[in-house]
Amino acid sequence: MERYTQPLSDDHTLEVYNHDQLIFSENGHWLTPLFAFERFLETYTGEKDCLSAHDTAAGKAAALLMARFGVKRAHINLISELAIEYYRQHGIMFSYEKRIGRLQCKTEELLSEMDDQEQMYRLLRKRAKLVRGVSVHVEHLSFSYPDHPPILDDLSFHLEEGERLLIQGDNGMGKTTLLALLMGKLKPTTGTILIGEEEVSHLEKRTIGYIKQQQQEQQFPVSAREVVAMACDSSLSREEQQWEIDTALRRTKIEHLAERNFFTLSGGERQKVSLSRTLCQKAKLLLLDEPTSFLDAKSRTTLVEVLQSLTIGEMPTIIIVTHDKALEKDLGWPTLLLGGI
Prior knowledge:
The chain contains eleven helices and 14 strands. By secondary structure, it is of the alpha/beta class. The chain has two domains: 3-127, Cytidine Deaminase, domain 2 (3-Layer(aba) Sandwich), CATH 3.40.140.30; 160-186 and 199-337, P-loop containing nucleotide triphosphate hydrolases (Rossmann fold, 3-Layer(aba) Sandwich). It starts with 13 loop residues before the first strand and ends with a strand. The mean pLDDT is 90.
């Protein structure tokens, strides 16, 4: 008998082996142990060429997570037909002790009609409350400068935690003004903005990460790495900060630019450094102003990949304003139109 198929110890609901070596165990309900295993894998450096899991129960959700985390074999005490189907589709060897039609839980019901793996994973993280983002509620927002016509007039929209929104409009439609209002740099003429349950002026530091349009500025000697490092949480150890910086640079594919002077970089390169800085900040709300400006095709692809990765993994709330109409197709996000475009 393979070790992973042997009975679980009394205080474990999930055990994961690599071949016959136990590398992870956890006690918990629902999908909590599997998400703990995901966090374990982020820092685990041992072998994982033959991951085998023993779980107390598995529906489609557990099967999806195991497949995503690289599990090749699974033994389940109580398994659903949906899990069996998913294991078979993804080439995972499985055995079980008891088989039922469907687990009696809301998650199994929600996933039963879904096929998109990324969206299923996103749903599971939301139900597990593994969402970094904050809600955004904009109600009847208007803004104008004294003795000028309104730039924004009676605008309302709502985003829940971890949602994303693309705001499109031609130049002069108030896109950048809206970002300034969300950040508290301008005050509404009328209407309200709540980030989470707070007014913008009461937000905790580091809640909002902002990536502005890249423009030429006065130069001074600061490296790309130093720009990213400015956003690191100072309460982390030096080693933890270094890891966060390196990870942010790697995700945007600019490790090779780390020691270059930020102000000698091209507009597209500086845009990616700014994105790395925001990743390092771990902001709950990301605001991006024309992020594709100055980007070549390769850099644009990297930007889209990073944004999609964020919406599936960390799930901050993200708002992008742009007049780039192709970005809606690239991202596939809900879109709000300002003005007549």
